[in-house]
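Lecture 7 notes: from sequence to structure.

We start with a single chain of 111 residues. Read the sequence below before looking at the structure.
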Amino acid sequence: LVVRDFSELNLDFWHQLQCLEPFGVGNTEPVFLFEEVFVLSVRRMGAEQQHLKLNLRDNFGHNFSVLAWFAPKNWLEIPEASRINLWVSLFLSEWNGSQNLEGKILRLEQF
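Now the structure, written as tokens:
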């Protein structure tokens, strides 16, 4: 599923997506493609800097955050201000009483 406008990825969408559960054999979790998105910022995290958080911007000026746990080395070297394609699954992040929809990076292409 191609996502062109990050503003569509909101909590209402998340709740609709939950109606498709449970995911597993015969009902795979949806994967979303973000095409030619702009990398606003790159942040390495973890004791060994092995995790990655990217803040992205779509072509409409909307932002969205994605993460990769134990990211491959080439993903950790993505420069800010580059354009990339990403395949992500979505998850709900809860921190200090706030909920945000974020993406888990499954595949990444630089160009």
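DSSP finds two helices and six strands in the chain. Keep this in mind for problem set 3.
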